[in-house]
Design goal:
The structure is a single chain. The protein is mainly α. The protein has a domain of 28 residues. Helix content is 48%, strand content 0%. The protein has 2 helices and no strands. It is rod-shaped and about 60 Å long. The N and C termini lie far apart (70 Å). The relative contact order is 0.08.
């Protein structure tokens, strides 16, 4: 059983190396962050 577990782990590592599973929703920024909100505007341009 231990051998089978290692074999499955190696197969998953090889599959991930050959065809990585990229999920763009993990890395997509969904809007301005808290630092932008603290500045008071979304473009960072001061209105003087």
């Amino acid at each position: 059983m231990n051998f089978l577990t290692h074999l499955i782990g190696y197969a998953a590592a090889i599959r991930e190396f050959v065809a990585p599973t990229y999920r763009p929703e993990r890395y997509y920024m969904r809007g301005p962050g808290p630092a932008c909100a603290r500045r008071g505007n979304s473009l960072g341009i001061s209105a003087h």
